[in-house]
Amino acid sequence: MLPPIKLISLVVLTFTTFTPIQALSAGLTAPREISHVTGDVYRMREGGHYSLVTVTQNGVVLVDPLNTRAATWLKGNLSQITDKPITHIIFSHSHLDHASGGRVFGKTDTFAHQKAPQTIDGVKPSVRFSQDHTFKVGNKQFELSYLGSGGHGEDSISVIVRPENVGFVVDIAAPKRIPSLSEPGQSAIAQLNQMKHFTSKDFKYFAAGHGRVGTRADAIEWVKYLEGSIEAVRAGLKQGKSDRSIISDIMQSDTDYKTWQRYGPWRASSLRVILNELRNN
Asked: Where are the alpha helices (DSSP H) in the chain?
């Protein structure tokens, strides 16, 4: 096995053989890469985690540094898409698998919801807001919106980048991907409401902190998925069915969702979370 430093060099060398779009279409298995979404908007991937990277006339706006290793890699490879530095960081929420590593970029303007901790991995947000906050950097506009409590993350926000009309949320939902609903104390109904708030916005592309890039139609389909799951569980409980029967019946009728990412690992367990929530409320 190659030493870690040589592995990293191999990853960068592989990446530099492709343009960002080619890297995505080639299906590289490199742990880190930059892929194109649309216009001046990109995603940076480390494993199964994604951040959003927007190039503006006056600097680069990053949503979620992920961690110190990923942030360091991004800083060293940003020249693949621009010669401008990262000047602004937005935290989608404060969970450290998405929000750590911001110190790598030095002094930046940073944005987080007011429920976020005072510092996030050593970075103190310079702008906090309660509901909505819009700002511009160069020729781009960033619309931040609080998604509400009780779902995934008490400080979770959505980000919409214009004029590209890219909507970004993290851990709450992703195109054609089953949610785990596994965070302690998490409410499936509250998470549904978070996504309903997101889909009330005007955007064209649906990017997320995990999974593929989709469209607003995929976000609406995800709302339909979770809404239907909650109603199906509620109906089963009213009929006096056992938990096992409810889960089995729902999964047997899952013709629209069996091809979704994480169906096998998470579909049954997410239905159990919904069962427990409805039974206890």
From this structure: 4-16, 20-26, 68-77, 96-99, 188-199, 216-238, 243-252, 263-279
SS3 assignment for 3-50:
CHHHHHHHHHHHHHCCCHHHHHHHCCCCCEEEEEEECCEEEEEECCEE
Q: Quick one: pLDDT at residue 150? A: 87
Domains and CATH numbers, the chain: 1-129 (3.60.15.10), 176-192+218-281 (no CATH)
Q: How many other C-beta atoms are found inside a 10 Å radius of the C-beta of residue 76?
A: 12
Instruction: Give the per-residue pLDDT at 9.
Output: 35
What is the pLDDT confidence band of residue 242, given thresholds at 50, 70 and 90?
A: very high
C-alpha span between 120 and 13 (Å, rounded): 32
Rounded-to-integer distance, Cα 126 and Cα 121, Å: 14
Mean pLDDT of 244-265: 96
Compute the average pLDDT of residues 136-159.
95
